[in-house]
Specification:
Blueprint (H helix, E strand, L loop, with lengths): L1 E2 L11 E8 L4 E6 L3 E3 L9 E9 L4 E5 L3 E3 L4 E10 L4 E8 L14 E10 L3 E9 L17 E9 L4 H18 L5 E7 L4 E8 L6 H16 L11
Parallel strand pairs: 1-3, 2-5, 3-6, 4-7, 5-8, 6-9, 8-10
Antiparallel strand pairs: 9-12, 10-11, 12-14, 13-14
Helix pairs in contact: 1-2
Amino acid sequence: MHLNNISGGVLAGDRLALDVTVQPGAMAQITTTGATRLYRHRAGARDSEQSTTFSVGENARLEYLPDPLIPYAGSRHTQRTRIRLDSGASLFWWEVLAPGRKAHGESFAFERLRIESEVRTQSRPLLREDFLLEPAKRPLGVTARMLQYSYVASLYVCQEGKPAAFWRNLEDALNAEAAQHTRSGETMWGASTLVSDGVIVRGLSTSNRFIPAALVHFWRLGRRALTGEDPVPPRKIY
């Protein structure tokens, strides 16, 4: 399924909501037709918001593969994503955050971007992230944050019920792959297990051109480990 916002982007004051239920035993791959563009804030308007909720049933599988999030200069936005996994459910989810329209000289020129993410099973949270980016107050291009890198990419691979040893082995395999895609000064990658039932791969890059192919390689490793099958990328990914 391809999601399409016919307005071409997210405007100040927009309130967008997506609620998806993947029934027990079903498999769903959801992507977008293009990047999510966050337009400049308008005086007097509320910040834009996008809330996404996924419920993945018993032994079901969700692959959520959106295109990058691009915050334009002057934009203010909050993105919330909540994912719940039932017994035996699997998740493959990636996200890419761009610094803005770099070709227009808009790197980190947005006003405010808040991203809240949660993945949980029936019994416990696997992942909770809540970060607020305000480049004018806390510049991102410093040693304590992103150095010379400007893109952030994440891949989450989860399945309720797998033992801890499985995830440690997958972490090792993903880190070996990460070493192959890391090039000093251009892009860097690393993987880490979650508290249980999952692993995260995260990357920093100076350009989006280094990201899509690497994400597909990591996705392939995770999918083979969880399902014994190769992934089927959306036709727009080469």
